[in-house]
Amino acid sequence: xKAYFARLFNYDHYANALMLDIIIKAGSPxxxxxxxxxxxxxxxxxxxxxKALPAIGGALWPDWSADTLPGIMxxxxxxxxxxxxxxxxxxxxxxxxxKNSKGEDFENxxxxxxxxxxxxxxxxxxxxxxxxxAAGFELPMMxxxxxxxxxxx
Length: 153
Prior knowledge:
By secondary structure, the chain is mainly α. 63% of the residues lie in helices and 7% in strands.
């Protein structure tokens, strides 16, 4: 499980970096920047939940500028990588208790949360990509299977 999720989070970093690169080259259009800021803010919220840390202050849809996003992305990637690296096999079944942004209590197992974080990123990168494509920009190949093929070579 550890190797599986480490690979998925490495892919997430790779895909985020490609998306941020095209966003910046495109002149940092507002909606794609907002979507990527939200994706990165959500990653921070989830890592704190997984670590049983207090909720971070700030918006779920922060007003971050495009030039701040690569640094945030890198820090998130380091945080997630270190977290996953420190997990033991039994930790993947651990129940995580947390409050959502409305203050409601929830519990989910860590495997489901990790899967959610990856899927959430894919969802919002696709949304950002659609805005960029509609504006005439060509997107790089960022499918997971392409990443796997590339990293196996």
